[in-house]
What we know:
The chain is mainly alpha-helical.
Amino acid sequence: MNNLKQKTYKAFAWNFSGRIINMLISFIISIFLARILEPSDFGSFAIVGVIISFSHIFMDMGLGISIVQGKNLNKYHYGSVFWFNISLGILLSLLMYFSANLIASFYNDYKLISYIKVLSLLFVINSSTKVIGARLQKDMNMKLPVKIGVISSVISGSIGIAMAFLGYGIWSLIIQSLVSAIINNALFVILNPYKISFYFKLSSLIELWSFGFRMFISGLLDSVFINLDTLVIGKLFSATVLGFYNRAKNLNNLIIKNISASLMSVIMPALSNIQDEKERYNIVIDKTLSIVSFFAFGISGLLFITGKDLILIIYGEKWNFAGELFSLLMLSAFAYPISSVLVNILSSQGNSKAFLRLEIYKKLIYSLNFIFGFIWGIKGFVYGLIVVYTLSVLINIFMATKQMQLSAKWFNTKIWIYGLLAIIAAVISYLISVRINNIYIHIITASISYLGIYLIINKMLKLNAYNLLLIEIKLLKNKIIKNE
């Protein structure tokens, strides 16, 4: 237990620190670009950015996660997935390249053609090291990916910033993405701790495919629906409206999804390692769900009351409407990290059928929200997301109860109590700071009052997550003192 705990914490620490650094680099680049470009420029690039998202999910058709979850794998499993990824990467690059004119015609924006053709290279570039990344994740070895990620981010980020200053606009982000992918994959090949397997056996591929295919369909559905809002809004509304929405959504993803992704990248292999030990498995889920809920609702509430001020300070007055949308988006931001824990319960135990069924249910509900957007505009769509994502968490809880054979009450008491506390803290904080006109004083007052109230109530109620964090802080403090 202690060995798994130490390995998991170490992996999380490396992954989290790497994501924070990469997040800061991406954040700095976005500030430069947002102050140089107009919202309409970001609207056009948002459509192209969907390609970057799809490039990751299509790379191995779910076979990477099969490697993470699988047992007793050999050189034929790794080699077969390697060659499959390379072949698929080449095919997808060609398909995207020759589809550029069709996509640009659909959006009536022919500037997209050159952007799409250049970014189509991402498919073949990223296909070469998916197996290496999966093996590192399986072993919870996050040190190497973090180091490589930081190096590629610093170099490509510097190039992106330089190009932005020189007036290259959207191309600065496109080139930054390509350079990052090239450096990242080159370093993975050079520093790879495993012997690259070039063997191929169709039976080994099929063996992994039985689990991986359903996970791929789930991931594909997730990727399509995550980006569907950009595609539909880009068609229904102006590029400027899409630019406002995409800027708000990207900052939301930068803060919420990057943080939770670090935790999820180590939870999956950790749970897979103890999937047959029910007592240990339940303890890990108990602690993880409590801590994630504590942070998810806490951060969502904080950014809801300060979101508009944050956007104005960072990006300037022209992004005022994006600030309103960002603040509203934060009302549903809690759902992503909590749902990530719940769906990992299914995927870690190899229940890909339940995982796929779960994703289909959620996507059907999500699709209905476009009706709100069509009738009431972009704000109607964002308000609808609050309902959709709340329902998604409830569905995830229902499926997790069946998987773990625990009551819904067991899950609900570890999740929604933190949401209630966040609401109480947000309301009191709003009443305290509502009459403050100075934007800087307002954001400081609202932040301090919200965090203070949220933490005090957690302490008074002696909730599980708060106590766990105190214990870990004390252990870390003692370790530091001991080392000194």
